[in-house]
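**User:**
Everyone, produce one record:

**Assistant:**
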Amino acid sequence: MTTPTLLQGQTIVLIGAGGKMGCRITDNLMKTDLRFLPVETGAKGRENLEARGLVPVPQEMAVPQGDIVVMAVPDVLIGRLAGGIVSAMKPGSLLMLLDPAAAYLDQLPLREDIGYLVSHPCHPPVFSDETDPEARRDFFGGVKAKQSIVTALMKGPESDFVRGEALACLQYGPILRSHRITVEQMAILEPAMAETVSSMLVTVMGQALEAAVKAGVPEEAARDFMLGHINVQLGIVLGRAGYNFSDACLTAIEYGRRHIIREDWESVFRPESVREQIDIMLHPERLDNASVPGSQA
């Protein structure tokens, strides 16, 4: 993998290098000639690195050397770990997060002499031109299948965005498209659009499949029927199919909307709701006390 000129000579520190997301990034960074310092404290994570022939570097040794410090740790840990990491970073370096949650909730200690950037993968699209069987099985991305990314510069000079985006393209590659957005826009995409709405609806679709099977439909038939219809439905809704739902289907859609979806469901995209969603993701114990859109106080 060719290293972009602007990243040559840069030292990359990856916090959580042996974790679930960390391993994906580690594997891609190992294909480059970048100086890469993997940091990992978990026993399983250290095993993952050792299986790749890597020796974890202590955080206190690695962070001060980093030109770009990437935090590949769970969102719930970022607020707790960021203080020690940020304070140890050298002037002119860049802190890179993989998710907007901590940045959106102002959980990062700010320094005037370092930059802050967030970059997140879009994952390989449903509609693609992938023909390689391995690429078609790469649902998450970052291995064989091309995917797009979104990147936001939270704080710092334009040069920080340029080198941060360049690193994001390496660690999430192969890349289809790179989109520049804001941290606030990234929070709208995730969790509001992609998790609170889309992931929730997909789980309901899975439950609908289970309900059909319980009602007596052979499982394989129900699965084929569901997957085929999802393909058509997405093609129509996303403007790829070239035709619309039938009149009968539109009536069924309206019936389902009235019986399943709240009328005020789009309120989850309001800034106060997005903030609440992220707060609850970081504090799951608060879910039962969360406000319900449209409910009476």
Summary: The chain has a mean pLDDT of 95. The first strand starts at residue 11 and ends at 15. Residues 76 and 282 are 5 Å apart (CA to CA).
